What does this fold into?
Amino acid sequence: MGKAARCKSENESLIYPWGNEFDPQNANTAESKIGTTSDVGKFSPQGDSPYGCADMAGNVSEWCNDWFNENEYKQRQAATVKDPRGPQKGDVRVLRGGSFNLNHGFAHCAIRLGDFPYYYIDYRGFRVASASVKLESDD
It folds into this structure.
């Protein structure tokens, strides 16, 4: 999801899906003052990534499969790691992408936060990705 959310090209990544400057008109964060989740596509196309992916920042923080360990990421800061994985076990899971109740500093794909997965909170969720598929017609 990282590439879909913030890569402009092979050698250039963005802070936010739409660019390097925050704009509250592009994502549901605390600055947008909506105060709850918003409909999918509300900030499209202005908040879309260069790949055309919508809703990659704000709204709900994305649950990730990785276990969170802040030291794991600090150790790899200088290294280029493709599809980095977190530690093999832990107590908290990774959250990414920010949410409606967090400010724009948390609304980008590169940040990793940790939280306990044991209970429901409305600002955490998941994003679904799907490849476009062209279906053959019978005409």
